[in-house]
Design goal:
This protein is an alpha/beta fold. The chain has a domain of 222 residues: Aspartate Aminotransferase, domain 2 (3-Layer(aba) Sandwich), CATH 3.40.640.10. It is built from 14 helices and 13 strands. Strands 2-8-7-6-5-3-4 form a 7-stranded mixed beta sheet, with helices on both faces.
Length: 364
């Protein structure tokens, strides 16, 4: 008999994400550097200039600092959290897997909204836990009803709850009271609050005010904020007990030297995000204003991306890709009629609308 993996691993499917599929591109078609990528939700204006300069400081002949001490010390100063309450990871997705590994397992249940980021479910299933989803409906624009979510979760006594705020892919941002009520309602449950896109959200409230609850883990992504996707850098904020637990299952040297140096440089460039956010919002406003009159339903959003109902998302994506534009087919979120668009620079947004208009003309 051939070697087999554990039963709960055998049927797992890798997560589906935005971004250019380099393997597929290697087989032909448009060159990846010729494609304008609207499918990923990173800062399209790139990292601060100081980040590229900082990479020369990374001594790759040595192992990186396993505790990321210099980065953590600066982060502690910048956000006002004790260093004992911080952990750095190889992107925020690694932190999600560490949380699932440490706090869920066989016989446990994790509860999460749907649609939402698919890595929550995958991380829990890798750990062997069951998953229960609270499904928002298209009729309500996929609005999240916190009270109904809490009622569902109570029925399942979850070991973990995963919340994306603002949510991916809907862009909905929950207020302080809604999150606080969920955290306080489940004192024996790890509540993972994923704020990967919060830096792009206007008038965001300070989630660190919830740190007096011992069961919350706040997850943030510098990959998204500072365009560090090729380096991978995220961090978590939680009680000392949670951080110490996560460190037990964290791989050694999980954040490479270049990422640590880039993170330090990014933290020392606070004005960069403010400038970029204003430009991103201009691009978003333009795209939304243009897509409505073209006959597409655009859902309200508080994030740096938005959902668009286009009919058959896979077909729409494929036709746009032929023209050199990539948008996110949301079928993997359970939304086969929707795409997700994250604005790029304004000149790219103008080109995208022109390409969509061209598609419509060809279809007539």
């Amino acid at each position: 008999m051939a070697l087999q993996p554990k039963a709960h691993i055998a049927d797992l499917q890798p997560g589906t994400h935005g971004g250019i599929n380099f393997c597929a591109q290697a087989g032909g078609g448009a060159r990846h550097n010729a494609i304008l990528d609207f499918s990923t939700c990173c800062n399209p204006y790139g990292p601060p200039p100081s980040v590229n300069e900082s990479l020369a400081k990374a001594d790759i002949s040595l192992y990186p600092d396993p505790g990321c001490r210099e980065f953590i010390d600066l982060l502690s100063h910048k956000i006002g959290a004790a260093r004992e309450n911080l952990i750095a990871t190889n992107g925020s997705t690694e932190l999600l897997r560490l949380a699932a590994l440490a706090y869920t397992g066989h016989g446990d249940t994790a509860v999460m909204p749907s649609p939402t980021y698919g890595e929550y479910e995958l991380a829990c299933k890798i750990a062997g836990a069951g998953v229960v989803k609270y499904r928002s409906t298209e009729r309500t624009g996929f609005r999240f009803a916190a009270r109904n979510f809490t009622s569902l979760a109570r029925k399942h006594c979850p070991s973990a709850i995963f919340l994306c705020n603002p949510n991916n892919p809907t862009g909905q941002y929950l207020g302080f009271s809604a999150i606080r009520n969920i955290v306080s309602s489940f004192p024996d449950t790890l509540v993972v609050l994923d704020e990967a896109y919060v830096s792009f959200t206007a008038d965001a409230w300070d989630s660190l005010e919830l740190l007096h609850y011992p069961n919350i883990l706040i997850v943030r992504s510098m990959t998204k904020d500072f365009a560090l996707a090729g380096l991978r850098l995220g961090y978590g904020v939680a009680s000392r007990e949670i951080i110490n637990t996560l460190k037990k299952v964290r791989p050694p040297w999980n954040v490479n030297s270049a990422a640590q140096q880039a993170g330090i440089a990014a933290l020392d460039s606070p004005g960069h995000m403010k400038q970029c956010s204003a430009l991103i919002n201009e691009g978003k406003d333009y795209l939304v204003a243009q897509l409505g009159p073209l006959g597409y339903r655009v859902l309200p959003t508080d994030a740096n991306f938005f959902l668009v109902r286009v009919g058959k998302a896979a077909t729409f994506q494929s036709r746009l890709l032929e023209k050199g534009f990539l948008v996110r087919d949301c079928s993997s979120f359970g939304l086969p009629a929707y795409i997700r668009i994250a604005p790029r620079r304004m000149q790219d947004c103008l080109k995208l609308i022109a390409a969509i208009k061209s598609m419509q003309s060809e279809a007539r």
